[in-house]
Amino acid sequence: xxxxxxxxxxxxxxxxxxxxxxxxxxxxxxxxxxxxxxxxxxxxxxxxxxxxxxxxxxxxxxxxxxxxxxxxxxxxxxxxxxxxxxxxxxxxxxxxxxxxxxxxxxxxxxxxxxxxxxxxxxxxxxxxxxxxxxxxxxxxxxxxxxxxxxxxxxxxxxxxxxxxxxxxxxxxxxxxxxxxxxx
Length: 183
Hints:
Blueprint: E1 4-9, H1 26-42, E2 47-52, E3 83-86, H2 97-103, E4 108-114, H3 116-129, E5 134-142, E6 146-148, E7 151-153, H4 155-169, E8 172-174, H5 176-181
Parallel strand pairs: 1-2, 1-4, 2-3, 4-5, 5-8
Antiparallel strand pairs: 6-7
């Protein structure tokens, strides 16, 4: 079996109902992510936390030093777990994420986090392009309602479309329970 690594993408306070960019079902996704993190720690699977931060304090969201930029307490990193700060949608871009994965001999990725249609999407596609087998835990990810040219798309549909795309061409999509129950 290939050595797994868990990547927790942007589960930050900004996405909570009290944040500036609340996501649909974020509390459920965060609770499931916490279960997966606990399992990874128990099994000595390396956990990598991604934290988005704007490049200046004039940004409307993810302002450096703000409460919104902090990782949610329920999924907070342990002392030995790296936090990769990113300034772009793709967590591999201009970060040392790839080097950190290599340093831990990680060959396969489990991905949870936010937002399904942005940062989770970007990291899944980039990871697969780099040759990593990827599993996305769909109920440990969250997104929000979107609209385009007068078409309003509920978060559940945005999320389902992303998970369907991942499953169609990028990797495995499982529920948290199915992942945790697997031998």
